[in-house]
């Protein structure tokens, strides 16, 4: 039953599962004082898992009778997920340790372990070859995420975020499951290949319903309009390192999953889902841009920014071509760096007592007290706004190029015109940082690692064009793996 | 590589970039010095570039080419023709002057200020030297970042509104151009600008592509009615920011028309020439009248810029050698003169901290050197023969007269109105009584200010007296452009035809001789 080839392809998930379980035992005996050490071990485990992606990247193929697919597409997405997860583990201890109003809040040892388990789930999501694997992966990730969202139990907002995330996530899962059951009922299969084969000779009504429900469920997970409403509340309430995690890794996983389902399982019904994706993309771009304008909380603003970015990434999917898929993957890679960089900057926002501040107004005049941090903020915001020569421009360039190549010039023109609306609120942050009179100063940087991470991500955003050939090759290989 | 043996264009971009990074880490006085040295080095490189530019007969159109396909989808492709050369020369010439203009007036965050300016210089040279479609776009758009910061941080009271307006206006104009570029690169299978300039796009597609590019360049230029960002940006920007904005950034719009709209979409350009003419005619008359009633010096010069740029656009769309050469000369001349005028405003603003025209008066008494130079630049702005703007405006209007005498007629009123508002401005500032005691007490130009204004004054005269120095590098390129767009050239209303001499003997001797005289006369007119 179990063949070695399947196990080798699924090695990253096996490594992470084993590491998670072992670290859980260590945590159970060593207690919360070992949290930092467990975090580092978790990062090591993620590194090993990333190394274990090699067989899937080079050879690729089905495992476990088609339930699981270890290919270049999955490997690309998992590489990004592991990277984001590792950063989110590294930045957590300092955030939780900072003395808050509720007294000392040390990091709990479960934090890195939950992230590892979420990574296992996300790995299953992007590598699923069957609707059931997909669902199991999704739930594994979600369960970990619900706990992470309410990780600061004593904080009302965090608990609220966890509850909201849970209720709405469960609703989304229900919708998704309903769609899966419809597809199973009308196509007679839960495997992507089976569904694609059944859809090849025209869509029946039942299949159309199934397709719509599955896409609606997935739209919840990627927080695309009109299923985005949980995002701002959850992002605002969750602890900042967790928000950074939500905005990066699960986004990649859910987008990767959506792309794979759309291209592989529903590839033969592309014209049907393309209209839905076009609508969702444009609505996300527009809503994400307009709704962000009035925000005063930086985390809420970044939540809307993530909705906006999902819209842009979906334009690549709407093109429905291999090139479009490659563009989505490149977009996600650049997006992860930009987002993590932005949240790293947000983590630096602490008042003189060391309490985290989330008010945009508190950034006023930052450029005069903390030059480096201000420059990093400006780089990430200009990049998110899509202004060249920063990498955020290149991400948009690729998806619009794919859309134009697929003959969707109108979509591209509308989308890019809307990006100007989005530029407005990113500019607002830069304006606050650079133009306004200084507000109360923040606490000094304190953590050399966070500063280094900010510097590295800012450098990637500025100099990323040099890696363009590499990114092109890798994303093309990832896209070619879908069939 | 090129004639010099080293990649001079890349070097000209690297020097200010390195200077910018150094400025960020230097103190105030150090940053000033670094910026001045970097811009002077670039000026020297620019002179070297000009001297080594082959202007001889049958020279290569593109010179100093560099090519490195390091970015995957697009390449680091550089190279210049005569048109780009003159604009690069304008850029490197104005930059040290901008640094000098900011020497004392910028006191806060000097390092960042100088870094923003040097970064701006890198990008401006990049725009004019880029030979790859997307590389051009990146430089073109990236210029928004330093300018946004320059206006927003070191600008006047209403700087935040102005910086937003500048950024969003120009961004909205440019993004549609990107979509058009993506489509073109697909269609032609190349991102190489010289290749695209020779590619014949389908005339129907040209219409859309032209409109997308027009959206960008019309805003940048700026053309009426999308010019409204310019007065705000100019008034709020610090002096050097206004100089670089009027001197170089506006020229990117005209350069875009010459490099993209005309050669790549000749049919569409001909099709939309009426639109350009109509907008330009409105701009010339309307903005000149608006300039006439301004009480703020900078605003007056900003509106006059819009009027001058309208002469550029009519010249470009005249589809003939005189029109396009004239447009280029207006761009160069206006770059110098409007820059100098903004510097003149800056000089007295630094002393009295107001741009209200009424707060000055009689400055020719206490500031004679200033009054002399200001007079020179006023006359140049009016387009007096012997100054740079005369050459350009004359050529451009002559070119457009061939295309449409009505457009020429309306646009020529711009010269008259220009004389009105400029001379009126000069009279109110320099002549009359010294009605304000504080203005009467202002000292004359310092050595630093003379070092800024005198070189521009000399160039203005040089360009006016011997324009051949500036026309000769670009002549062959303009000829190539005219040849490229000739098949699409719209019929002008001048309809010049040579007369047909008739044999005298065919009619009666007396009558025939009379007719022959007439024929000679018409033929003479036609020539």
Automatic annotation (TrEMBL), chain A:
Primary subcellular site in the record, as a coarse category: membrane
InterPro entries attached to this UniProt entry: NADH-Q_OxRdtase_suN/2 (IPR010096), ND/Mrp_TM (IPR001750)
GO molecular function, one term: NADH dehydrogenase (quinone) (non-electrogenic) activity
Stored Pfam families: Proton_antipo_M
Bilayer topology: Multi-pass membrane protein
Residue ranges of domain NADH:quinone oxidoreductase/Mrp antiporter transmembrane in the record: 128-420
Enzyme Commission code: 7.1.1.-
Keyword Ribonucleoprotein: no
Reactions it catalyzes: a quinone + NADH + 5 H(+)(in) = a quinol + NAD(+) + 4 H(+)(out)
Keywords: Cell membrane, Membrane, NAD, Oxidoreductase, Quinone, Translocase, Transmembrane, Transmembrane helix, Transport, Ubiquinone
One cellular-component annotation, GO: plasma membrane
Transmembrane portions of the chain: 6-30, 37-59, 79-96, 108-126, 163-184, 209-230, 275-294, 301-322, 328-347, 372-391, 403-427, 448-467
Subcellular location(s) per record: Cell membrane; Endomembrane system; Membrane
GO biological process, one term: ATP synthesis coupled electron transport
Similarity field: Belongs to the complex I subunit 2 family.
UniProt xrefs under HAMAP family: NDH1_NuoN_1
Subunit composition and interactions: NDH-1 is composed of 14 different subunits. Subunits NuoA, H, J, K, L, M, N constitute the membrane sector of the complex.
UniProt function note: NDH-1 shuttles electrons from NADH, via FMN and iron-sulfur (Fe-S) centers, to quinones in the respiratory chain. The immediate electron acceptor for the enzyme in this species is believed to be ubiquinone. Couples the redox reaction to proton translocation (for every two electrons transferred, four hydrogen ions are translocated across the cytoplasmic membrane), and thus conserves the redox energy in a proton gradient.
Name of protein: NADH-quinone oxidoreductase subunit N
TrEMBL record, chain B:
Regions crossing the membrane: 6-26, 33-53, 73-101, 113-130, 136-154, 166-185, 205-223, 235-258, 270-293, 300-320, 326-349, 370-391, 403-426, 447-465
Keywords: Membrane, NAD, Oxidoreductase, Translocase, Transmembrane, Transmembrane helix
Stretches the record annotates as Disordered: 492-527
Subcellular location per the Swiss-Prot or TrEMBL entry: Endomembrane system; Membrane
InterPro entries: NADH4_N (IPR000260), NADH_Q_OxRdtase_chainM/4 (IPR010227), NADH_UbQ_OxRdtase (IPR003918), ND/Mrp_TM (IPR001750)
Pfam families: Oxidored_q5_N (PF01059), Proton_antipo_M (PF00361)
Organism: Sphingobium fluviale
Protein name: NADH-quinone oxidoreductase subunit M
Biased composition (Basic and acidic residues): 508-527
GO molecular function: NADH dehydrogenase (ubiquinone) activity; NADH dehydrogenase activity; ubiquinone binding
Domain NADH:quinone oxidoreductase/Mrp antiporter transmembrane stretches: 130-415
Any one of the GO BP annotations: electron transport coupled proton transport
């Amino acid at each position: 039953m179990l063949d070695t080839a399947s196990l080798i392809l699924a090695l990253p998930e096996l490594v992470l599962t084993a590491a998670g379980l072992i670290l859980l035992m260590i945590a159970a005996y060593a207690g919360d004082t070992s949290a930092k050490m467990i975090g580092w071990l978790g990062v090591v485990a993620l590194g090993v898992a990333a190394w274990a992606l090699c067989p899937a990247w080079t050879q690729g193929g089905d495992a476990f009778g088609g339930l699981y697919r270890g290919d270049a597409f999955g490997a690309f997405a998992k590489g990004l997920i592991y990277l984001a997860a590792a950063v989110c583990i590294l930045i957590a201890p300092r955030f939780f340790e900072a003395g808050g109003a509720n007294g000392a809040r040390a990091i709990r040892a479960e934090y890195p372990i939950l992230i590892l388990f979420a990574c296992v789930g996300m790995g299953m999501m992007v590598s699923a070859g069957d609707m059931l694997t997909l669902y199991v992966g999704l739930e594994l990730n979600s369960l970990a995420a619900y706990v992470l969202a309410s990780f600061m139990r004593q904080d009302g907002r965090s608990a609220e975020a966890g509850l909201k995330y849970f209720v709405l996530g469960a609703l989304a899962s229900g919708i998704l499951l309903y769609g899966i059951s419809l597809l199973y009922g009308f196509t007679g299969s839960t495997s992507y290949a089976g569904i694609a084969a059944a859809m090849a000779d025209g869509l029946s009504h039942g299949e159309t319903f199934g397709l719509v429900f599955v896409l609606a469920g997935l739209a919840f997970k990627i927080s695309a309009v009109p299923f985005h409403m949980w995002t701002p509340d959850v992002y605002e309430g969750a602890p900042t390192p967790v928000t950074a995690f939500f905005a990066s890794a699960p986004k990649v996983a859910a987008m990767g999953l959506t792309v794979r389902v759309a291209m592989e399982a529903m590839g033969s019904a592309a014209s049907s889902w393309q209209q839905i994706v076009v609508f969702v993309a444009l609505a996300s771009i527009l809503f994400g841009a307009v709704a962000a304008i009035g925000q005063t909380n930086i985390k809420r603003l970044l939540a809307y920014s993530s909705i906006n970015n999902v819209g842009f990434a979906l334009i690549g999917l709407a093109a429905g071509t291999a090139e479009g898929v490659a563009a989505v993957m490149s977009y996600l890679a650049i997006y992860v760096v930009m987002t993590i960089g932005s949240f790293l900057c947000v983590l630096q926002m602490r008042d003189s007592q060391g309490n985290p501040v989330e008010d945009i107004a508190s950034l006023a005049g930052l450029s005069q007290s903390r030059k480096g941090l201000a420059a990093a903020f400006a780089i990430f915001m200009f990049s998110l706004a899509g202004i060249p020569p920063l990498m955020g421009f290149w991400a948009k360039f690729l998806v619009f190029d794919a859309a134009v190549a697929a003959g969707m010039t109108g979509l591209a023109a509308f989308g890019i015109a809307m990006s100007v609306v989005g530029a407005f609120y990113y500019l607002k942050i830069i304006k606050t940082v650079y133009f306004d009179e200084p507000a109360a100063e923040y606490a000094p940087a304190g953590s050399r690692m966070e500063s280094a991470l900010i510097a590295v991500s800012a450098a990637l955003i500025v100099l990323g064009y040099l890696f363009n050939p590499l990114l092109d090759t890798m994303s093309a290989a990832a896209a070619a793996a879908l069939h | 590589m090129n004639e010099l043996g080293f990649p001079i264009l890349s070097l000209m971009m690297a020097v200010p970039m390195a200077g910018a990074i150094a400025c960020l880490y230097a103190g105030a006085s150090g940053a000033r010095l670094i910026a001045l040295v970097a811009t002077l080095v670039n000026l020297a490189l620019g002179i070297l570039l000009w001297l080594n530019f082959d202007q001889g007969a049958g020279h290569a159109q593109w010179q100093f080419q560099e090519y490195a396909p390091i970015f995957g989808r697009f390449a680091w492709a550089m190279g210049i023709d005569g048109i780009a050369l003159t604009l690069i020369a304008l850029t490197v010439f104005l930059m040290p002057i901008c640094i000098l203009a900011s020497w004392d007036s910028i006191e806060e965050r000097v390092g960042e200020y100088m870094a923003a300016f040097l970064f701006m210089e890198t990008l401006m040279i990049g725009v004019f030297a880029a030979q790859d479609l997307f590389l051009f776009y990146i430089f073109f758009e990236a210029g928004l970042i330093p300018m946004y910061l320059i206006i927003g941080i070191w600008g006047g009271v209403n700087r935040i509104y102005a910086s937003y307006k500048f950024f969003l206006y120009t961004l909205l104009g440019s993004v549609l151009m990107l979509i058009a570029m993506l489509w073109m690169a697909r269609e032609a299978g190349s991102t190489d600008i010289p290749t695209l300039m020779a590619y014949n796009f389908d005339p129907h597609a040209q219409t859309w592509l032209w409109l997308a590019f027009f959206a960008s360049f019309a805003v940048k230029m700026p053309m009426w009615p999308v010019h409204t960002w310019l007065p705000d940006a100019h008034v709020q920007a610090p002096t050097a920011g206004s100089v670089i904005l009027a001197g170089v950034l506006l020229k990117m719009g005209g350069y875009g028309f010459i490099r993209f709209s005309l050669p790549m979409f000749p049919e569409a350009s001909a099709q939309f020439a009426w639109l350009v003419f109509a907008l330009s005619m409105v701009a010339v008359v309307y903005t000149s009248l608006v300039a006439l009633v301004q009480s703020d010096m900078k605003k007056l010069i900003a509106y006059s810029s819009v009027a001058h740029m309208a002469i550029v656009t009519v010249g470009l769309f005249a589809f003939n050698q005189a029109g396009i050469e004239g447009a280029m000369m207006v761009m160069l001349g206006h770059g110098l003169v409007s820059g100098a005028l903004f510097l003149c405003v800056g000089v007295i603003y630094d002393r009295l901290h107001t741009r209200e025209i009424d707060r000055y008066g009689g400055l020719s008494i206490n500031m004679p050197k200033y009054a002399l130079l200001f007079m020179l630049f006023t006359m140049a702005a009016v387009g007096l023969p012997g100054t740079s703007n005369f050459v350009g405006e004359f050529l451009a209007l002559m070119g457009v007269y061939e295309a449409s005498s009505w457009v020429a007629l309306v646009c020529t009123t711009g010269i008259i109105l220009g004389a009105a508002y400029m001379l009126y401005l000069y009279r109110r500032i320099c002549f009359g009584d010294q009605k304000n005691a504080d203005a009467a007490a202002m000292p004359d130009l310092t050595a630093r200010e003379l070092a800024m204004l005198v070189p521009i004054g000399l160039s203005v005269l040089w360009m006016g007296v011997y324009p051949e120095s500036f026309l000769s590098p670009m002549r062959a390129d303009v000829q190539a452009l005219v040849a490229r767009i000739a098949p699409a050239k719209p019929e002008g209303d001048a309809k010049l035809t040579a007369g047909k001499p008739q044999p005298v003997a065919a009619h009666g001797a007396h009558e025939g001789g009379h007719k022959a005289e007439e024929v000679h006369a018409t033929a003479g007119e036609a020539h």
